[in-house]
């Protein structure tokens, strides 16, 4: 079976447009401590969102993820990073980040730890 270059390009564009966001920081298994400042970064493939929220999740990174705490409400002009100060009394465990907006796709970061 032969695939045309146009089909391959169309498939790649569809994946990127469906993704909308991709986290670049924090890296997988990064470890932070209460009181640390963390620079959270992502790539915004779409750039057309008026608002979104940045959440911490716990448990499994699945379709039905477990929200733990909202850490930011993002508005236009839509940023591609956020600096978060981990509270001194923050629960020590494994987390991931989720950007939520009005679309069904909610990208999740790699797991990281607060230790």
UniProtKB/TrEMBL annotation:
Pfam entry (one): Kre9_KNH
Domain Yeast cell wall synthesis Kre9/Knh1-like N-terminal intervals: 26-104
Leader sequence segment: 1-18
Superkingdom of this protein's organism: Eukaryota
Keywords: Signal
Database matches in InterPro entries: Kre9/Knh1-like_N (IPR018466)
Record protein name field: Yeast cell wall synthesis Kre9/Knh1-like N-terminal domain-containing protein
Native source organism of the sequence: Umbelopsis vinacea
